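Please check this chain.
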Amino acid sequence: MVSAVRTVLGDVRSEELGVCDAHDHLFLSSPQLPGQELNDASAARAELDAFRAAGGSAVVQWTPYGMGRRAADLPPLSRAAGVHLVCATGMHQAVHYDPELLDEVRGKLADVFVSELTVGIGTSGVRAGLVKVAGGFHALDAHARWTMTAAAEAHHATDAPIAVHLEAGTGALDVLDLLCGELGVPPHRVILGHLNRSPDLVVHREAAASGCWLAFDGPSRAHHATDWRMPDAVLALAEDGFGHRLLLGGDTVVTGARSVDGGPGMPYLLRRVRPRLASAVGEELVERMLVDNPGLAFAADWR
């Protein structure tokens, strides 16, 4: 087995990934976001071009099963923009799905994940490179436990990394207790998203000490007033010796957030977040968060 990042164009070595947006979306739709769907391939191409022009070379798309991934569109976009793309399988919170869709995969969710990781998504032939699941606000409901159990089964079958949406940045330790404690997933295969939304340094340190990855993603979301705390949180973790566990992402989820639609979009991560963070923690650590760490976090010994 050779450790590699599974992109939509095939497996690549960790060191080939380059400057990486570790959590974002090119396509996404949800009943919770009516009229704000990311479903325009031309706009996705323009956003990737803007990201590439800002110095980016890889994007990990966390859009999971049943939320409009448009997997077949990803390989041509990757080739045209010259940006590595990683696609996700997995399942978000129940509110993002029609009940009928959830019923379709009841009892076979882990098999769906494994198939999408190893065979391909639908008829696209595109293999997913991670499993995305989600917790709740300070808690894990039955749906979260179901999806995380399926994600753990898929991990054990394939070695795929598991990326976790933390609702408002909360519940990190409960997630680790379930995935790594009860379900036996190695911490270095778990990526916790949205730590910037709940800048609790005690929780951050405890999570990092487990050996998992901590993603600071979604800067300048209008309803998250924690951007100014993020450099301090990163600095505290680095000073405690956890700089090698940190990731950065943009998490563009609606049309108005794209740079091509007047929002910050993917380029903001490199145009504004990178220099702001470098002024607080140094360029060397920021380079590690954007280049070295993602290559390791999203690599797997694929089975």
User: Anything to note?
Assistant: The chain is about 40% helix and 15% strand. The first helix runs from residue 41 to 53. Residues 187 and 212 are 4 Å apart (CA to CA). The first strand starts at residue 3 and ends at 7.
